[in-house]
Amino acid sequence: MPMGERESFENLMLPLLDSLYRAARALTGSEHDARDLVQTAYVKALGSFRRFRPGTNEKAWMMRILRNTWIDQLRHRKVAGPVVPIEEALLAARDLVAEPVEARDFQQAMEQFSDAEVIAALGELPESQRMALYLSDVEGLSQDEVAEVLDIAVGTVKSRVSRARALLRERLTAYAQDMGFVGRLR
Amino acid sequence: MTHLSNEQIEQVLQMPEMAPEHLQSCPLCQGRLAEAEAMRSRLRRAFGALQPDDLLAEQVRAGLRRHQPRWWHRIARGSVVRVAAMLVLGVVLLVAVPVAGPWLQPTTAHGAHAELVQIHQANLLPHMELHAGSSPEDVASYFKRELGLEPAMPQLGVGMALRGCCVAYFRDRPVGSYVVESDRGVISVIVLPDSVDSLEMSGTVNRGGRTYRTGTFARSHVAAVEANGYTYAAVGEVEAEWLIELLETALNVEPA
Predict the structure, then answer these.
(1) Which of A39, A167, A161 is nearest to B52 (CA)?
(2) Amino acid B85: pLDDT
(3) In this structure, are residues B63 and A42 in contact, taking their beta carbons and an 8 Å threshold?
(4) Which of B220, B166, B228 is nearest to B196 (CA)?
(5) Which site among B22, B29, B88, B219 is 20 to 30 Å from B213 CA-CA?
(6) Would you say B151 and B96 are in contact if contact means Cβ atoms under 8 Å apart?
(7) With contact defined as beta carbons under 8 Å apart, do B237 and A72 qualify?
(8) Residues B190-200: what's their mean pLDDT?
(9) Pairs of CB atoms within 8 A across A/B
(10) Across the interface, which of A22, A39, A116 has its CB nearest the CB of B60?
(11) Pick from A76, A107, A169: which is nearest to B186 by CB?
């Protein structure tokens, strides 16, 4: 690897470390796994850097490698899916059925959740929906870019994000009602 | 009045300037949009609080410094140990010729590369138990004991680790396969007594005086080459070109 090439890679991609780490947390649900995943993904990305074309969205490019690396790691571990630690309260909330609440009440309730609770609730969503919502909302990728990262059609991105948002709302609402953050409509 | 669909709400969230007229006069849809915006904002704040420590950046940099993505460049640079390893493998290949020659009988080819991909996929299954030899020598010994095969073994220390090997079945006969972990993912190398032509794969790549055959099935690629009495088929979810390079270098296949 010529020195200049690695320097170019580092200059372009290392500023994305925070984003990749957060995405890795969203994917894996664990700090340890996220750190391991990020390191492996960077090494893989360096190996593929010659195929990186100027003008490509580097964040989307790295996110795609990160996700593919995670899929590879799951295969290596011979497990069916990520093990996501979830707080006990949210585990209990999973079985609750959310009753309708006013939009305003829901927005207020969201402010009462801790960051960890919000992240854990997102972690309960199916991976395909979780990452579509994460990449769209948190990373601010366009629907085209999310489609590229997840290797799906743009129309599928829209439906996944939409379903993920509805499911997350349901989970958070159930939890908020259980905790008494919001009342019921009836 | 037709309210916006959930997907339209997502569209507006991404491109507010494309908001339909309906939104301006519908409090219900305005509320739904506001709720989606609030959720997006809350998610951003929650994840924004997650910051990696400085150690992770150092670990990433260290990993990049250690990495040699074009692992065959190491061989090109050459070291006494590597050259010696190549010579040893060359001797192994020479010994293998008389042993495996009679095996090279053409057989029915239909769906051969699909069968190879299935072997690879079976290697990835959680319950697949591989003979986890700690070294190529262990694996070579296993192959000889179980199958009477003496194929070339992958060179380690060139960006690859040997995960293990196992006996598979191809065309209702036992064959050997070993699994390597590379920086491009998991690759199965299946050692066959069949001729490469009998696999009837459509792609052809000539490289270094040899003819590699390539095929694709179920998102996996296969590259196969005949060398000194065996056909080596590399299978993985990476492009065939890379598999050919792996066969060329990792197996140190000498031109016929």
Answers:
(1) A39
(2) 60
(3) yes
(4) B228
(5) B88
(6) yes
(7) no
(8) 85
(9) 131
(10) A39
(11) A76
By three-state DSSP, how is residue B96 classified? helix
How far is Cα of residue A81 from the mean position of the Cα atoms in its chain?
15
What pLDDT is recorded for position A1? 54
In DSSP terms, which residues pair with B203 in a beta bridge?
A: B214
User: By the 8 A CB rule, do B152 and B130 touch?
Assistant: no
The number of residues in chain A equals 186
Q: Are A167 and A125 in contact (CB under 8 A)?
A: yes
Q: Measure A37 CA to nearest chain B CA, in Å.
A: 10
Residue A128: helix, strand or coil by DSSP? helix
Q: Which residues of B touch A35 (CB under 8 A)?
A: 52, 56, 59
More confident residue, B87 or A133: A133
pTM higher than the cut 0.90: no
Q: Environment class of residue B138 by beta-carbon count within 10 Å: exposed (0-12), middle (13-18) or buried (19+)?
A: middle
* A90 bridge partner residues: none
At B10, list the tokens. 């997502």
Q: Which of B243, B242, B127, B254 is nearest to B188 (CA)?
A: B243
Residue B167 in this model has a pLDDT that exceeds 80: no
Low-confidence ranges of chain A (pLDDT < 50): 78-97, 184-186
Q: What ipTM was assigned to the predicted interfaces of this complex?
A: 0.83
CA distances from B185 to A41, A73, B177 (A): 11, 9, 16
Helix intervals (H) in chain B: 6-14, 22-25, 27-48, 54-66, 72-77, 80-100, 112-124, 136-147, 240-250
Q: Does residue B186 surpass a pLDDT of 80?
A: yes
| Closest CB to B50 among A22, A46, A169 | A22
Cβ pair B94, B126 in contact under 8 A: no
| Euclidean distance between CA atoms B191 and B224, whole angstroms | 10
Alpha-helical (H) ranges within B198-239 are none
A56-70, B89-103, B227-241: segment of lowest average pLDDT? B89-103
The secondary structure of A48-60, three-state, reads CHHHCCCCCCHHH
Mutate which: B42, B73, B120, B128, vs A, most A CBs within 10 A: B42
Within 10 A of B51 (CB to CB), how many other CB atoms are there? 12
Chain-centroid distance, C-alpha A6: 28
